[in-house]
Amino acid sequence: MTAPDAARPHSLRWRLLAATLVAMAVAVALAGLLLAGLFRDHVLRQFTATLTSQLDQVTARLEIDANGQPRLDAQALSDPRWARPYSGLYWQIDAGAGASAQRGVLRSRSLWDAELAVPADAIVDGAVHVHEVAGPGGANLLLVERSVRRDGSSATVWRLLVAAELRETQAAAARFNGVLVASLGVLLGLLAVAAVAQVAVGLAPLRALQRALSAVHDGRSQRLEGSFPSEVQPLIDDFNTVLERNAEVVARARTQAGNLAHAIKTPLAAIAQAAAAAAVHQRPDAAATLAPLVQEQVSIARRHIDWHLARSRVAAAQGLPGARTAVAPVIDGLIRVMERVHAERGVRLSFDPPDPGLAFAGEAQDLQEILGNVLDNACKWSRKAVHVCASASIEAGTPRLRIVVEDDGPGIAPERRASVMARGVRLDESMPGSGLGLAIVNELVDLYGGRLILASAAAGGLRVELILPAASNT
Amino acid sequence: MRILLVEDEPTLRAQLRAGLEEAGYAVDEAGNGRDAQHLGDTEPFDAVVLDLGLPVLDGLTVLRRWRANGRPMPVLILTARDSWHEKVAGIDAGADDYLAKPFHMEELLARMRALIRRSQGLASPLLECGALALDTRSGRVTLDGRPVSLTSHEYRLLAYLMHRPGSVVSRAELTEHLYAQDFDRDSNTIEVFIARLRKKLPPETIETVRGLGYRLVAAT
Q1: Is A125:A147 a contact under the CB 8 Å cutoff?
Q2: Measured between CB atoms, does A313 come within 8 Å of chain B?
Q3: Fold assignment, B2-119
């Protein structure tokens, strides 16, 4: 296991941080743009309102004399900036509108020799238009205009213009933007720190899990220690169950391997002993006895191997929760095998198909191992027919599976039934096979918490009844 | 009778070959799955002894491919994998019998005899044709109950004919089924043994069908 690397693109930490930071940056940037826009809008609005009140003053002071010429008493205007040249606050009166307009009929002293140029748009009397125009010295001006007409006359339309420099407004907006960017930057920084802290706190259990796992990995611990948040705890519990089962299986496998090794050692020692004796003494009778002795000891060793092999097949798959095996296909498959393998004996196998939902609470291989041995035994001994049936039953409140195999062979005398189920007993040495059939079945059924019952069949042969755990109908 | 022996372990293969040849079978062998599949697809075997754990291509796959290609010869699986679920898989792949290692040679031979006999639709191990009888279990041939002494080549030829009572068997078929692939197939050999058999049995027992081959007819 390598050290955790937070910069790896696949680490949870990196993904959480990246997603949070990108989202926060986008939110802060949008907020900044919105605030800056709002501020600029507000300032412009106020500026326009001030200019409009100046325009109102100018409008109020405007007089049209008898010749129809406009007059404006400059002294009556209060703001001193009207009089100071290029002060940044200007007024101007144009005659007419459109292309024939006569510009600068009257101008504020502040305009000096400059003129305000307005876009030649149509304007309704009394309405106020706002423009941004270039003023003296290229300064940026905000201009408001309005047209007036002498009462009751259709004569010349007078256009009153008032403009002021935007410099200060723009400077104010720039100052505000600077403060805004700085404060939003600080906010983003603080949020990032909070996100890092949140990710660190949120993922702390995973780091603890990693430590616990590496402790298991290094053999310092047998299970994942510690308590974890409710989202992870079920996973941890399951994992611990698997670890415990694994340890059990390993322990059992070790014991079995040891048992098998010891069991085989004895025949090997006997063979080695006999071979050594034959070699050393060169006695003709030693050589003659060697072959049967080897055969006998090899068959003993083989029975040990068969026994342990059969046990290990079941022990490996045992106890896994949720195992469920439909019974009928297993029996059908085994009957196909029996019909081939025992074809020469001409045995007829019959099977009453059970409820298709009938299921064994265990692995298919285990049921095959159990039933295969029972059926094989029945076929070996039967004269003509073997009958199989399977059904469900309830025993002490738990669902049970009952499988009965009957043959018409010689059967087993009641007093010998217990002994054939004991390990390694073989009643008839002349029949092929290791003689472990029913003993193995008994052992396997026992491992599943079931029972093996031997009785006499109606047809005179052996009746084998298997009681096994049934899977509940779902 | 010609048998394909598929086994990758050389010592066991040699032992099996010796045992099968001693019992009068012509044996071709394959040490891996690919060779086995090729031989089984192209040569007419009377039976196959098939190991499952094979290099290149495993035995069950080989068997499934033979069956998919419509090869009907009886197959006996001979393997150390003897759990019942493996037996079910073997039979369902198209095997006709299943024998677990370690095994006794006698049992293998008995099963081979039965497989070949059943594949010809013959139920009894005692093959009869009129007064002539051949016991596949003991390899004894009798005529009206009196034993007839045959050499192994004569026995193989007669046994093949007795497995197909009443049908015409061509010389090419006899050569193909009585000798392994690497055997020097001298075209006269069959005639020589037919002639010898006719001397030991009533001459009309083996009828020559001109241009087609030989037919075993019930001796009167």
Answers
A1: yes
A2: yes
A3: Rossmann fold (3.40.50)
B91 touches chain A (CB under 8 A): yes
Q: Under an 8 A CB cutoff, do A432 and B83 touch?
A: no
pLDDT tens digits along B149-199: 988 888 889 999 998 888 899 988 888 888 877 666 666 788 888 889 888
Q: Give the nearest chain A residue to B74 (CA atoms).
A: A340
Distances (CA, A) of B153 to A31, B173, B207: 104, 15, 19
pLDDT tens-digit profile of A31-53? 999 999 999 999 999 999 999 99
Residue A108: partners with Cβ closer than 8 Å, 6 or more residues away: A74, A82, A83, A89, A90, A91, A92
Cα distance between residue B92 and residue A64, in whole Å: 118
State the helix-helix crossing angle for B188-200 and B152-162, rounded to 10 degrees: 90
Q: How far apart (Å, rounded) are the C-alpha atoms in residues A217 and A51?
A: 80
Total count of domains within chain A: 3
Indicate whether A227 belongs to any domain. no
Dump pLDDT digits (tens) for A337-376: 999 999 888 889 999 888 888 999 888 888 998 999 999 9
- Stated length of chain B: 220
Give residue A39's pLDDT: 94
- CATH for B126-216? 1.10.10.10
Which range marks the domain in which residue A418 is found? 325-469
Q: Do B92 and A343 lie within an 8 Å CB cutoff?
A: no
Q: What is the mean pLDDT of residues B33-50?
A: 94
> DSSP 3-state assignment of A299?
helix
Q: Do A85 and A197 lie in a common domain?
A: yes
Domain end: A171, A188, A222, which one? Answer: A222
State whether A272 and A154 are in the same domain: no
**Cβ contacts (< 8 Å) between A343 and chain B: which residues?**
96-97, 114, 118
